[in-house]
Specification:
By secondary structure, the chain is α+β, with helices and mostly antiparallel strands. The chain has a single domain, classed as Alpha-Beta Complex (Fumarylacetoacetate hydrolase, domain 2), CATH 3.90.850. Strands 1, 2, 3, 5, 6, 7, 10 and 11 form an eight-stranded mixed beta sheet that branches. A hairpin with an 8-residue loop joins strand 1 and strand 2. The longest helix has 15 residues.
Length: about 260
């Protein structure tokens, strides 16, 4: 399970791997994790996540996604310091890759601590305070992300850089999100996509509560949970402005200074 040491490499120095990734946040991206510090299992990657997050401060939310409706999810915590309300302005020098993802996120109204009986869909819906459009900015700690193995990306908080949360979407419980289209605009270049590739987003939040966030004591009231990109990661290293529009909701607006 994520966050558990079972299956982690017996001789791996997870702390050194986390320190490498933390240094790359301040000194600039590295080429890749040295071979001895690369996670060999998901358990290794999640342990590196845990140690990295401990150094970055409180958890403000989570990202969770899956490659398809039946694919196993994965997740990463979002440091509270990287969460912003829309409209937001981010320092351009800190975001060199600027991969943009348009997403749907939920804000929790109550805690979902670990418990023996798994949370079901009804439990998750009852725990959600509000639903929001959002933009995630990916910023890898590696100079050439395309050449890096998936487990290293998982260890690197799945490339999380920052998150911009939009205004609440009224009546979200009645929306058929599979039929909803997102319009993403980056410096006037528009992309449209329909539906989340992972399918049911509530399934993702339930997995997060039951499995992914257990190591952190579960999910907490006030945290956001963002459920994967509807648009894929749009590489925009020179982007100045991005917008995401869902279902007639107020657009999410992000600018780079």
């Amino acid at each position: 399970m994520p966050g558990e040491r079972n299956g982690a490499g017996a001789g791996m120095d997870h702390g050194a791997a986390a320190a490498y990734l933390l240094a790359a946040r301040g000194d600039g991206p590295g080429l890749a994790l040295p071979p001895a510090l690369r996670p060999a299992t998901e358990a290794d990657a999640y342990e590196i996540q845990r140690l990295t997050t401990a150094a970055l401060g409180p958890i403000g939310g989570w990202k969770v996604g899956a490659a398809g409706p039946d694919a196993p999810p994965n997740c990463a915590p979002l440091p509270a310091g990287g969460l912003h309300g829309s409209p937001a302005t981010l320092p351009g020098a800190a975001f060199t890759t600027r991969d943009i993802e348009s997403e749907i996120a939920f804000v929790l109204a109550r805690d979902l601590p670990p418990r023996p009986v798994p949370y079901g869909a009804a439990d998750i819906v009852a725990a959600i305070q509000s639903c929001h459009p959002g933009i995630e900015v990916l910023q890898s700690r590696f100079a050439d992300p395309a050449s890096v193995d998936p487990l290293s990306h998982l260890a690197d908080l799945i490339r999380h850089g920052a998150y911009v949360l939009g205004a609440p979407i009224a009546g979200w419980q009645a929306i058929d999100f599979a039929a909803v289209e997102v319009t993403q605009s980056i410096d006037g270049v528009t992309l449209r996509r329909r539906g989340n590739p992972a399918g049911d987003m509530i399934r993702l939040v339930a997995w997060l509560a039951n499995v992914g966030a257990v190591w952190a004591g579960g999910l907490r009231a006030g945290q956001i949970v963002t459920c994967g990109s509807w648009t894929g990661a749009t590489a925009s290293p020179a982007a100045r402005r991005a917008e995401a529009m869902f279902y007639g909701a107020v657009p999410v607006v992000l600018e780079f200074a």
